[in-house]
Specification:
The protein has about 80 residues and is mostly helical. The chain has one domain. Helix content is about 60%, strand content about 0%.
Length: about 80
């Protein structure tokens, strides 16, 4: 895992399915668990889903708090500038 991977959890969105368009970091645990049982897709999305599953499953969500706060601040600045 690289630090860039953690950042990508907030910038890569689900390309399909019930949660299409939602950031991988914001997917619910039961959805991530389903992928863990059925198999993660190939490619970057699958790799990031597996990473987010590990974070969620092991209760490490607090690791993402600084990135989530930075993402929120960035979005607020973008809205204010518009």
């Amino acid at each position: 895992m690289k630090s860039e991977d953690l950042e990508r959890l907030f910038t890569v969105t689900m390309p399909y399915g019930k949660y299409k368009g939602r950031a991988i970091a914001d997917l619910p645990g039961n959805y991530l668990n389903w992928f863990a049982r059925e198999g993660f897709p190939r490619g970057e999305v699958g790799r990031l889903l597996a990473l987010m599953h590990e974070i969620d499953h092991n209760g490490l969500g607090d690791l993402l708090l600084p990135l989530r706060q930075a993402q929120t601040r960035s979005a607020a600045k973008t809205r204010a500038a518009a």
